[in-house]
Amino acid sequence: MNISYEKDWRAIVPTLCWSWITAFILAIPKLIDIYTTDYYLDNQAGVVVYKHGLINKRQENIDLYRIKNISSRENIFSGGYIYVTYTDRTVKTLPYIRNANEVSIRLRNIANTKRVEQGVKPIEILK
């Protein structure tokens, strides 16, 4: 008498469920970080306000007239980032921005306008 044994692939379902649950639990800090990040432009004051943090809430004001350069990076997996370089060569990263390339262009135009309004001399490029 020949008995045939077949594999029962249904046993993988609990493992997959635990994998998804574990991945979700590990993603919670990033979800909270994204949820608590907020940006807005105060055009009258000439600043971009960057608020972030859940327990330690922080607010950073980015003066538009002090901006030397604005660049961006978009990634299909990690989203968009804008990098603001100040005239003193410090760099500030603004994470979690949708359409970061378009936003950086608009932000650069506004920053240039604010520089002219503030009477800041144009940045000289050294050769």
UniProtKB/TrEMBL annotation:
Record-annotated membrane-spanning stretches: 12-32
Domain of life, source organism: Bacteria
Record flagged with keyword Transmembrane helix: yes
Sorted UniProt keywords: Membrane, Transmembrane, Transmembrane helix
Record flagged with keyword Transmembrane: yes
Protein name (record): Uncharacterized protein
